[in-house]
C-alpha cells in the first residue's frame, strides 16, 4: 500500500503522475478489500487519494473513483452503512434483494425505533459548531486525528457533535402514566367549567331588565 502511495503522490515539481498510472492504481485500489484505519495511517494512502480528489487538474473519472474510495474507507470510521449515492442501479437492486429476507424476519419481531437518515460524509458544515465531517474525515484518512485529553494543548471542554449510532432498540419502555388520575382531572376540569357557566347564566338573568308592569287604578296588585 505504501508503494501505491508513492506512485500516485505528486512529483517533486508538484505535478501529477501519468494519467494512465493514476487510472490503473485507482482501479486496483477499488478492487482491493476494505482497508483498515491503521493501514490508512501508516501507508498515507488516504492522504494521496484525497489529494487527487481535490486537485483541479485531475480528470473527472479519476475524481469519481477517488470519491468512491474515500466514501468506502470513511464508512467504517464513522460507523455508517453502505453509501447508496455511489452505487449503481443494479447494485442497489441486488442489495435490496439480499435484504428482503432479513427484513421479513424483522417484521415478526417487536417494533424497533426508526434510524435517522444516514448523513453524508461530504455534507455541508453544520451551524452547531465543532469540526465538520469533512475535516474529521481528512484527519482520519491522513492519520492526523488524535484524541485530546484534559490538560493537552488544544483541548476544549465543550459539547461535541454526537456520532451516529447503529443500535436498534427493541425493548419498549413501560408506560408510567396512570390513566385514572388523568381521567379524574378531566372530570374536575369539566365540573369547574360547568360551574362557571351556571354562574354566568345566573348573573345574566339578574342583569336582564324587567318588563313593563301594569298599574291598577284601584291601587291593588301594585308591586311594592
From TrEMBL:
<keyword id="KW-0539">Nucleus</keyword>
<dbReference type="GO" id="GO:0016973">
    <property type="term" value="P:poly(A)+ mRNA export from nucleus"/>
</dbReference>
<dbReference type="InterPro" id="IPR017923">
    <property type="entry name" value="TFIIS_N"/>
</dbReference>
<comment type="similarity">
    <text>Belongs to the IWS1 family.</text>
</comment>
<feature type="compositionally biased region" description="Basic and acidic residues">
    <location>
        <begin position="133"/>
        <end position="149"/>
    </location>
</feature>
<feature type="domain" description="TFIIS N-terminal">
    <location>
        <begin position="2"/>
        <end position="80"/>
    </location>
</feature>
<dbReference type="Pfam" id="PF08711">
    <property type="entry name" value="Med26"/>
</dbReference>
<feature type="compositionally biased region" description="Basic and acidic residues">
    <location>
        <begin position="108"/>
        <end position="118"/>
    </location>
</feature>
<feature type="region of interest" description="Disordered">
    <location>
        <begin position="86"/>
        <end position="161"/>
    </location>
</feature>
<feature type="compositionally biased region" description="Basic and acidic residues">
    <location>
        <begin position="87"/>
        <end position="98"/>
    </location>
</feature>
<dbReference type="InterPro" id="IPR051037">
    <property type="entry name" value="RNAPII_TF_IWS1"/>
</dbReference>
<dbReference type="GO" id="GO:0005634">
    <property type="term" value="C:nucleus"/>
</dbReference>
<protein>
    <submittedName>
        <fullName>IWS1-like protein</fullName>
    </submittedName>
</protein>
<dbReference type="InterPro" id="IPR035441">
    <property type="entry name" value="TFIIS/LEDGF_dom_sf"/>
</dbReference>
Amino acid at each position: 500500500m505504501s508503494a501505491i502511495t508513492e506512485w500516485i503522490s505528486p512529483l517533486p515539481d508538484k505535478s501529477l503522475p501519468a494519467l494512465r498510472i493514476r487510472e490503473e492504481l485507482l482501479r486496483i485500489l477499488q478492487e482491493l478489500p476494505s482497508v483498515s484505519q491503521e493501514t490508512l495511517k501508516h501507508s498515507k494512502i488516504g492522504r494521496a487519494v484525497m489529494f487527487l480528489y481535490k486537485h483541479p487538474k485531475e480528470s473527472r473519472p479519476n475524481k469519481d473513483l477517488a470519491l468512491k474510495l474515500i466514501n468506502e474507507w470513511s464508512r467504517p470510521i464513522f460507523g455508517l452503512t453502505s453509501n447508496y449515492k455511489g452505487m449503481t442501479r443494479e447494485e442497489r437492486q441486488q442489495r435490496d434483494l439480499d435484504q428482503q429476507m432479513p427484513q421479513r424476519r424483522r417484521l415478526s419481531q417487536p417494533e424497533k425505533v426508526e434510524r435517522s437518515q444516514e448523513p453524508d460524509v461530504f455534507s455541508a458544515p453544520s451551524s452547531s459548531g465543532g469540526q465538520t465531517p469533512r475535516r474529521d474525515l481528512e484527519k482520519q484518512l491522513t492519520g492526523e486525528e488524535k484524541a485530546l485529553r484534559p490538560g493537552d494543548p488544544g483541548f476544549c471542554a465543550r459539547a461535541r457533535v454526537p456520532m451516529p449510532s447503529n443500535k436498534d432498540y427493541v425493548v419498549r419502555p413501560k408506560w408510567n402514566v396512570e390513566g385514572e388520575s388523568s381521567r379524574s382531572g378531566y372530570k374536575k376540569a369539566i365540573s369547574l367549567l360547568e360551574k362557571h357557566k351556571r354562574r354566568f347564566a345566573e348573573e345574566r338573568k339578574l342583569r336582564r331588565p324587567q318588563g313593563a308592569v301594569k298599574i291598577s287604578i284601584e291601587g291593588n296588585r301594585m308591586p311594592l
